[in-house]
Write a structure and sequence with these properties.
Elements (H helix, E strand, L loop, with lengths): L7 E4 L5 H8 L8 E4 L1 H7 L2 H8 L4 E7 L3 H13 L4 E5 L4 H13 L5 E5 L7 H6 L6 H14 L4 E3 L5 H8 L4 E4 L18 H7 L3 E4 L1 H4 L4 H11 L3
Parallel strand pairs: 1-2, 1-8, 2-3, 3-4, 4-5, 5-6, 6-7, 7-8
Helix pairs in contact: 4-5, 7-8
The structure holds ligand LLZGTKA7.
Keywords: Decarboxylase, Lyase, Pyrimidine biosynthesis
Subunit structure: Homodimer.
Function: Catalyzes the decarboxylation of orotidine 5'-monophosphate (OMP) to uridine 5'-monophosphate (UMP).
Amino acid sequence: METYVSPIIVALDFPSAEQALVLADQLDSKLCRVKVGKELFTRAGPSILTALHQRGFEVFLDLKYHDIPNTCAQAVLAAADQGVWMVNVHASGGLRMMQAAKENLVKHSLKTQLIAVTVLTSMSQADLQELGVERSLEQQVLNLAQLTHQAGLDGVVCSAQEASLLEEKLGKAFLKVTPGIRPATSSTDDQQRIMTPEAAMTAGSTHLVIGRPITQAKEPNQALEAIIHLLPQ
Ligand SMILES: O=c1ccn([C@@H]2O[C@H](COP(=O)(O)O)[C@@H](O)[C@H]2O)c(=O)[nH]1
């Protein structure tokens, strides 16, 4: 598989395979990867992965598994068996769960990237407090990222606001996959911890997850290209 020219992963959050593929067909698979999340996968099933692979896209299956170790390890294996480029679990599922998931990939010689969600980008410090988490949001992200690193995973989902801290503590090679990316003119929607694409890359994000600013644009591929042009080389 040749190297991609862009770190952008377009989130295909649609209620049907047809709508997702209409959008995917407007995107250049050499310019981005795509993400299939809970809504699309639950409605369309695994055949959406095949359809996207046939169009030349690498796919991040964003189902954020959060369960006991055996269940997560088997779910991650099931995803990897379908040829996805990346899959994820929740870091708050714990060290043993993440280790079991990683070990299952290694045991089956699968190279699928495995990452873990730290704190959702839709959450603020106040949301964490509601859950009984008293430490700072940044510290919670760092703790979960360190646990993920210890478990041998490839990286984390975090906001770009934490990317520089994680680069400093865990290195450049540890992936920082960052949703909550908003070009300066876009609306925030339900995201709390946001950053522009160019600032996110400068801060140390390795991949930018972008949904609505591209998928709801009149010309999605033009929106994608415009964002790519803003990125530092
Ligand atoms: O912390 C997280 C984890 C995942 N997401 C997902 O990323 C996209 C973002 O879409 P936008 O339209 O650009 O807001 C979406 O699929 C989320 O499920 C996230 O936003 N934050």
